[in-house]
């Protein structure tokens, strides 16, 4: 019970204590009418009747390709850092390369990145709830926004009730709805929410299409709440349950990117007030809150630490961080707005390394999971007048039933990186107090704080009147309540507890802490410096206050000890036991069997651990190895684990095997296997062909990604002087063109244009008068555009073509994309999205095991002599001991030649296309080699395509492996041996030796 009853605020209030419990009749909960497992009221979601703050991490399974075993690594790191939920898109384009893939049931092949059910099960194993967001449209900076390429070919509009579009999406949504339905919480699975469509608005709430998506979920057994993320956060209330119309969802959410185009104004006031206006029966839900920002061609990465906490200012209780782990746009999965890396500045970087943001997220998550009063707190007021400095903005939240107050504080200006010191006036049950009474609070850049008043914790139900340090978390171990307080190093800390009479305060394990008791308040005063333990006892109440400076707090973890039952490894207040552990870089799990505490995780060097565990524990294991431990004066255990590990990386500047890879420019090249481009009509009515008879839109011929090759034939009269071409490739694309094997030139594209119109003069002596002439266009493909309402409706290929001079027209055109197109790729394991129309890809030279013994030898570092394409192969060993995680990347030295050297590279690791580099545009020069594709027990095959776009050729200045750290880890890698060349030999085009350029 409360140590002291509050003044008038709470006297209304037998409801005060009633509301503190989960099943209080005071709370009127809403439901879908189909299940009570997930319910809500205007303040928060409830899972199995218990209020919960949904702190969610966005993670796209397909962006961590290769061995699906690796998903558990990222999921465990998410869980270990304070999250309780993962949100994921499903990418329709990967599961339905054709409309009738697998008889209309889609490709969800076990053991591949397409195994969505496995991903969901790994989430559950990690103890994470899940939010499924399968679209049909997802945006997500992925090609077509998740629409398979063939969807763009559909006549009429997309994302409407156009019957052609309906026919396209229903099989996919039926298939994915079934997978989701059988993995819902009601069936023992982790899925608690399902989103319909994505950032969709059909103005204002009328959409038979949206309603049809919802009906498809329900018809296939989805019973949990259906959500929607309104792109225009809260402004329009699209599909809010509290507004009339078709397509209404159960829970209305918004998206918010304060570090990108948006500012705090949108997060703070527009979102909060608009949400209250258009969806008052819903908890505040941010389906996407920027955890970093998108990386564009030609741009620069975004970073930033700590601002995620600001979102709480609007009483958000469903918060999904987009992206928490961004991953890699391998193959052709990027949309043209994004390059290979989808790192996003997320808390876990593209190479699975948890960065400083994860500490910030963990501090927040561990606080939110135990701060139940916060979940039903109302926003009372906000502004810059709470603090003595007007540079600091405060939002004041208060729980109407318990009186607990929460002051969410941060710099008023979102870009500010200033260091500001201030004091704040807080309202307590003993009246207003300026804290700290002496000294100041420190705000460093984007750091935010949640300061509490009248905050009750622990088994003893002790009340904190106020604290100038934040609460990291609290837990009860044996019969002692532990509360962890933290603030920036050097800041003044002051924490006031309410007690009926003076407790005994033991400061023996404290450093620089003083205590005083008067008028029912115990005040601890301190300067933050390392760690202090203060023991407070009064009668049966036993409290240890652990006071940490922020760098020290960043090392502490509070893993739960899994209990019994289906969801025993999910945090649930009052049912889980917790231990407190300091030191490890990642602490994945903790478990206790009799007297043994087993800790599982990762270390980034020699690490001293400190452990607070139940008295019964006398042995500690780290990754199954007993730790030599000693008892500290403050009652904890300490010991040393780990050591210094190194991995030696092989050099890549040696000789490789080499072949030319553009035989198609030879006029006599046999293109009988190419597709005849004989269509003369198109459904891309918004972007019709600009000139020429044949429609040369690659999607219409079944090619949806990767390099494209066109061969056009005409009979020359001799009067032709130039070739006019418009080629549409997407942002940062480009193309090269040859006539009768003679190079005409290249268009380099730019980061902000999608197509190029050029007139190429025909050099004298190039034409074959009275005979067949062959024009070849080799183009890059930067992915299919995303969309608002007409998605995928931008062609890739030649928009227009004409010969200048004479009356000559092209007789015929042929084209080639990836071998077999999307319908019949030879490599169904990696999928059609992995390769394009490059000759070396068609013959399978990017795959391990390709016979390259007859190739020439050379290196990308010695260059390509003229415009054209060379393809290089090499192998390397990366021996890494069991128990070591050594993430590596491939680094390209950007060419410094002036004028800029125009060339493009594509990299393949063990047959997977893992990178696309554009020397003239950038910015990416370092490419992750995913651990889920790297082999440790056998040789890795690296292939490099060098496309020289200038007549003078191109030279790669440097190529090397670099390390992203060496961690001793509980992870166990086994080589993901995916189909090699021999498995596909029969299905591949015939090879032969092509002279390098
Ligand atoms: C339940 O949701 C509906 C909207 O679907 C709303 O009209 C109603 O007020 C809500 N009830 C409660 C108790 O929040």
UniProtKB/TrEMBL annotation:
Domain Beta-galactosidase residues, every copy: 373-556
PROSITE patterns for this protein: GLYCOSYL_HYDROL_F35, PROKAR_LIPOPROTEIN
EC number: 3.2.1.23
GO MF annotation, one: beta-galactosidase activity
Signal peptide start and end residues: 1-18
Keywords for the protein's UniProt record, in alphabetical order: Glycoprotein, Glycosidase, Hydrolase, Signal
GO biological process: carbohydrate metabolic process
Xref: InterPro entries: Betagal_dom2, Betagal_dom2_sf, BetaGal_dom3, BetaGal_dom3_sf, BetaGal_jelly_roll_dom, Galactose-bd-like_sf, GH, Gly_Hdrlase_35_cat
Catalytic activity: Hydrolysis of terminal non-reducing beta-D-galactose residues in beta-D-galactosides
Keyword flag Ligase: no
Taxonomic superkingdom: Eukaryota
UniProt keyword Lipoprotein, yes or no: no
Family: Belongs to the glycosyl hydrolase 35 family.
PANTHER family per record: BETA-GALACTOSIDASE RELATED
Protein name (database record): Beta-galactosidase
């Amino acid at each position: 019970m409360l140590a002291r009853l509050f003044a008038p605020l709470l006297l209304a209030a037998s409801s005060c204590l009633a509301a503190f419990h989960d099943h209080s009749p005071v709370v009127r909960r809403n439901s879908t009418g189909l299940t009570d497992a997930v319910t809500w009221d205007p303040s928060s979601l409830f899972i199995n009747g218990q209020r919960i703050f949904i702190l969610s991490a966005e993670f796209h399974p397909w962006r961590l390709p290769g061995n699906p075993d690796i998903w558990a690594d990222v999921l465990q790191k998410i869980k270990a850092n304070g999250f309780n939920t993962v949100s994921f898109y499903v990418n329709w384009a990967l599961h339905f390369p054709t409309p009738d893939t697998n008889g209309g049931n889609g490709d969800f092949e076990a053991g591949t990145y397409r195994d969505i059910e496995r991903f969901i099960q790994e989430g559950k194993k990690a103890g994470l709830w899940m939010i499924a967001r399968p679209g049909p449209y997802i945006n997500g900076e992925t090609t077509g926004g998740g629409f398979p390429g063939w969807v763009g070919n559909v006549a009429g509009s997309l994302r409407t009730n156009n019957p052609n579009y309906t026919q396209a999406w229903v099989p996919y949504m039926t298939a994915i709805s079934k997978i989701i339905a059988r993995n819902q919480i009601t069936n023992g699975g982790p899925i608690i929410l399902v989103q319909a469509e994505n950032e969709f608005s059909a103005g204002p709430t009328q959409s038979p299409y949206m309603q049809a998506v919802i009906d498809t979920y329900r018809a296939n057994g989805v019973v949990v709440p259906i959500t929607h993320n309104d792109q225009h956060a809260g402004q329009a209330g699209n599909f809010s349950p509290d507004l009339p119309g078709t397509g209404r969802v159960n829970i209305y959410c918004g998206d918010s990117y304060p570090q990108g185009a948006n500012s705090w104004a949108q997060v703070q006031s527009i979102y909060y007030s608009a949400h209250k206006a258009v969806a008052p029966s819903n908890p505040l839900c941010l389906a996407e809150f920027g955890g970093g920002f998108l990386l564009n061609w030609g741009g620069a990465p975004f970073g930033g630490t700590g601002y995620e906490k600001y979102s709480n200012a609007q009483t958000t209780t469903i918060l999904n961080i987009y992206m928490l782990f961004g991953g890699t746009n391998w193959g052709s999965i990027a949309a043209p707005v994004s390059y290979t890396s989808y790192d996003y500045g997320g808390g876990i970087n593209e190479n699975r390394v948890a960065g400083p943001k994860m500490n910030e997220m963990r501090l927040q998550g561990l606080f939110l999971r135990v701060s139940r009063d916060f979940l039903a707190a109302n926003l009372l007021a906000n502004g810059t007048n709470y603090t003595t400095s007007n540079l600091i903005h405060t939002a004041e939240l208060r729980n109407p039933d318990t009186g607990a107050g929460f002051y969410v504080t941060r710099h008023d200006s979102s870009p500010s990186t200033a260091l500001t010191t201030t004091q704040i006036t807080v309202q307590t049950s003993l009246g207003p107090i300026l804290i700290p009474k002496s000294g100041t609070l420190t705000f460093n850049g984007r750091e935010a704080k949640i300061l509490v008043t009248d905050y009750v914790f622990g088994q003893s139900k002790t009340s904190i009147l106020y604290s100038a340090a934040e609460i990291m978390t609290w837990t009860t171990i044996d019969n002692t309540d532990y509360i962890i307080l933290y603030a920036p190093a050097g800041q003044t800390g002051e924490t006031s507890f309410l007690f009926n009479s003076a407790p005994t305060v033991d400061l023996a394990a404290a450093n620089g802490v003083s205590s005083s008791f008067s008028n029912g308040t115990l005040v601890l005063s301190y300067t933050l410096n390392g760690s202090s333990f203060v023991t407070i006892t009064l009668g049966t109440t036993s409290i240890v206050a652990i006071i940490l400076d922020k760098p020290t707090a960043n090392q502490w973890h509070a893993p739960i000890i899994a209990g019994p039952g289906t969801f025993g490894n999910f945090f649930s207040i009052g049912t889980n036991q917790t231990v407190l552990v300091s030191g490890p870089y990642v602490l994945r799990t903790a478990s206790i069997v009799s007297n043994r505490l087993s800790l599982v995780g990762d270390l980034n060097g020699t690490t001293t651990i400190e452990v607070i565990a139940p008295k019964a524990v006398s042995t500690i294991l780290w990754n199954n190895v007993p730790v030599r431990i000693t008892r500290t004066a403050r009652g904890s255990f300490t010991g040393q684990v780990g050591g210094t590990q190194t991995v030696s990386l092989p050099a890549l500047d040696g000789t490789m095997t080499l072949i030319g890879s553009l035989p198609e420019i030879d006029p006599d090249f046999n293109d009988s296997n190419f597709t005849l481009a004989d269509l003369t009509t198109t459904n891309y009515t918004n972007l019709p062909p600009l000139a020429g008879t044949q429609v040369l839109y690659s999607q219409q011929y079944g090619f949806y990604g990767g390099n494209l090759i066109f061969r056009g034939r005409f009979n020359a009269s001799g009067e032709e002087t130039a070739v006019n071409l418009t080629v549409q490739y997407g942002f940062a694309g480009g193309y090269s063109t040859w006539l009768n094997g003679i190079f005409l030139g290249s268009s380099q594209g730019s980061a902000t244009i999608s197509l190029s119109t050029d007139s190429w003069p025909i050099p004298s002596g190039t034409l074959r008068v009275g005979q067949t002439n062959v024009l070849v266009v080799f183009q890059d493909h930067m992915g299919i555009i995303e969309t608002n309402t007409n998605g995928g409706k931008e062609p890739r290929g030649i928009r227009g073509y004409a010969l200048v001079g004479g009356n000559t027209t092209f007789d015929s055109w042929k084209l080639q994309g990836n071998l077999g197109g999307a319908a019949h790729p030879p490599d169904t394991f990696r999928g059609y999205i992995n390769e394009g129309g490059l000759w070396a890809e068609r013959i399978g030279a990017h795959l391990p095991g390709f016979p390259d013994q007859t190739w020439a030898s050379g290196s990308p570092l010695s260059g390509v002599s003229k415009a054209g394409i060379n393809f290089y192969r090499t192998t390397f060993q990366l021996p890494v001991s069991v128990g070591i995680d050594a993430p590596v990347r491939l680094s390209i030295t950007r060419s410094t030649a002036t004028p800029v050297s125009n060339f493009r590279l594509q990299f393949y690791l063990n047959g997977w296309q893992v990178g696309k580099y554009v020397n003239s545009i950038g910015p990416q020069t370092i490419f992750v080699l995913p651990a889920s594709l790297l082999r440790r027990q056998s040789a890795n095959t690296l292939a490099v395509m060098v496309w020289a776009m200038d007549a003078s050729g191109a030279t790669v200045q440097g190529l090397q492996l670099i390390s992203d750290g060496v961690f001793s880890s509980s992870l166990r890698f086994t080589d993901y041996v995916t189909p090699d060349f021999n498995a596909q030999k029969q299905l591949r085009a015939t090879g032969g030796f092509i002279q390098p350029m």
